[in-house]
Amino acid sequence: MKIRPLYDRVVVRRQEEETTTAGGIVLPGSAAEKPNRGEVVAVGTGAVLQSGELRALSVKVGDKVVFGQYAGSNTVKVDGEELIIMNESEIYGVLES
């Protein structure tokens, strides 16, 4: 199954956080925070401006992105995998290697 977001929405797969601290302490699942990084899985067609024009999105499929702790409150399960649907404006930046 595939998912195709509409307009300026982006589907992101959350990146798993490490469960061990720098000091070597293993954190239980309940103590770990939600990760704020992920990979873009799908993007919409773009934002519709007031003039009616379509503005293309700045992110593309495969980009590694950083977003806020509570960004993308809409989650959906596709093929048993939990994905986040958020607006492009909720993404803080793209990680480049």
From TrEMBL:
Molecular-function GO term, any one: protein folding chaperone
- Pfam families xrefs: Cpn10 (PF00166)
- Annotated gene: groES
HAMAP family under this entry?
Answer: CH10 (MF_00580)
GO cellular component terms listed in the entry, alphabetical order: cytoplasm
Share what the entry says about its subunit structure, partners included: Heptamer of 7 subunits arranged in a ring. Interacts with the chaperonin GroEL.
Q: What is this protein called?
A: Co-chaperonin GroES
Which NCBIfam families does this UniProt record tie to the protein? PRK00364.1-2 (NF001527), PRK00364.2-2 (NF001531), PRK00364.2-4 (NF001533)
Location in the cell: Cytoplasm
Keywords, sorted A to Z: Chaperone, Cytoplasm
The keyword Coiled coil is annotated on this UniProt entry: no
Query: What family does this chain come from, according to its entry?
Result: Belongs to the GroES chaperonin family.
Question: What does this gene product do?
Answer: Together with the chaperonin GroEL, plays an essential role in assisting protein folding. The GroEL-GroES system forms a nano-cage that allows encapsulation of the non-native substrate proteins and provides a physical environment optimized to promote and accelerate protein folding. GroES binds to the apical surface of the GroEL ring, thereby capping the opening of the GroEL channel.
Keyword Chaperone listed? The answer is yes
